[in-house]
């Protein structure tokens, strides 16, 4: 009978990559993607839940095990209109995807938009097969990109030790279009695809509905190790009708100033909005019609009073970057190069790309940002 080595969380034997904090749960720590000091500055409970969603977060270790089991509780969102979607976990071994496991909605704790628990479920055990032979491997278990989790224990048929990862670190901040809830799996979000193509270790700060230039996010990026940084911003400012152009440009400058305080030489790429037909000319806020498609509840006349549509957002981004032309390591990528106007049919709800579109976006971003001589690749000195 094989000996089982059990590592309870929290643990120094493994790394929870992409998490900067955790809070106690019922069964174990719940990872969060922002540091502890930000908690009191987060303005609403929905954003707080989004910070705990594990898009880009993974359990990383080095082991000679042929089989590992992760015990965790999964906390999903109860939409109230259809059964909860399965949560997906991926195993990556020595940089290559090896196995995928689906945890059905019936095995998840579900939380409604107001924070009410509508379904309780104890932890589940998810087992992966890492390989046929006992040799040391680098493993990453990518946690669900659509849920929060509580980590209980990692069990293996050989000891586990901390990972040895010398890849450059890429920090990416963005909206739901960076959190990628519509992607087919956690390793199939466009940032995960781009990181894999480029050989980078991703730190995902993609926060659904909340890429709006928050100062505490800028300070988080400032204070974290980063070899490359990218910032996708614009659509959430319009979605929520959160600010006028008069404020948007100074907010962008302030965000970049803060990032540069911690990373004066790192390449930084500003990523403009992908297309959104409802808001190319009409301002926010965004509402959903009876088919669940995005439409504008704003009026075009508000543009003259400073309201923002995506055309205005792109103009503001261009002005900010032009004003910072002396920063030779600051770059821009129009989001329409990742998802062209000709592909808006893949915005199934008129706002978010579907899984197939995210696949293309990841490959395109890697080609633009991570190939030899590209913006986010530091020249060898």
Mean pLDDT: 96
| Portion in strands | 25-35%
Low-confidence stretches: none
Instruction: Give the overall shape, derived from the CA principal axes.
Output: globular
Structural class: alpha+beta
Give the fraction of residues assigned to helices.
10-25%
Would you list the SSEs in sequence order as H and E? EEEEHEEEEEEEEEEEHHEHEHHEEEHEH
Main beta sheet = 6 strands, mixed
Extended strand count: 21
Number of helices: 8
Between the first and last Cα atoms, what is the distance in angstroms?
53 Å
Rg, nearest Å? 21 Å
- What oligomeric state do these chains adopt? single chain
Provide key terms for this protein:
single chain; 381 residues; alpha+beta; six-stranded mixed beta sheet; six-stranded antiparallel beta sheet; 8 helices; 28% strand; globular
Give a short summary of the structure.
By secondary structure, the protein is α+β, with helices and mostly antiparallel strands. Helices cover 22% and strands 28% of the residues. The model has no long low-confidence stretch (mean pLDDT 96).
């Amino acid at each position: 009978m094989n000996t089982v080595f059990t590592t309870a969380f929290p643990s120094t034997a493994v790394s929870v990559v992409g998490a900067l904090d955790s809070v106690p749960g019922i069964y174990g720590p719940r990872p969060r993607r922002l540091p502890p000091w930000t908690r009191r500055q987060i303005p609403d409970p929905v954003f707080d839940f989004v910070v705990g969603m594990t898009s880009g977060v993974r359990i990383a270790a080095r082991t000679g095990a042929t089989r590992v089991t992760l015990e965790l509780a999964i906390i999903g969102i109860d939409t109230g209109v259809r059964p909860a979607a399965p949560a997906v976990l991926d195993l990556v071994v020595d940089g290559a995807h090896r196995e995928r496991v689906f945890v059905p909605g019936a095995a998840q704790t579900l939380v409604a938009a107001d924070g009410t628990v509508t379904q309780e479920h104890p932890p589940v055990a998810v087992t992966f097969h890492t390989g046929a032979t006992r040799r040391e491997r680098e493993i990453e278990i990518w946690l669900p990109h659509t849920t929060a989790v509580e980590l209980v224990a990692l069990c293996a048929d050989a000891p586990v030790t901390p990972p040895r990862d010398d890849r450059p670190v890429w920090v990416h901040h963005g909206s739901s279009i960076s959190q990628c809830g519509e992607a087919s799996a956690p390793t199939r979000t466009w940032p995960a695809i781009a990181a894999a193509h480029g050989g980078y270790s991703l730190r995902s700060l993609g926060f659904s509905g909340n890429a709006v230039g928050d100062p505490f996010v800028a300070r988080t990026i400032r204070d974290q190790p980063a070899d490359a940084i990218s910032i996708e911003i614009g659509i959430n400012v319009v979605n929520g009708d959160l600010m006028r152009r008069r404020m948007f440009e100074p907010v962008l400058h302030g965000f970049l100033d803060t990032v540069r305080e911690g990373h004066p030489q790192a390449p930084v790429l500003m990523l403009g909005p992908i297309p959104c037909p409802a808001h190319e000319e009409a301002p926010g806020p965004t509402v959903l019609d009876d088919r669940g498609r995005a439409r504008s509840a704003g009026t075009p006349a508000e543009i003259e009073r400073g309201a923002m549509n995506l055309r205005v957002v792109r103009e503001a981004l261009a002005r900010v970057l032009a004003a910072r032309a002396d920063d030779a390591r600051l770059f821009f990528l129009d989001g329409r190069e990742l998802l062209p106007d000709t592909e808006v049919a893949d915005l199934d709800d008129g706002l978010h790309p579907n899984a197939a579109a995210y696949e293309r976006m990841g490959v395109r971003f890697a080609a633009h940002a991570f190939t030899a001589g590209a913006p986010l690749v530091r020249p060898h000195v």
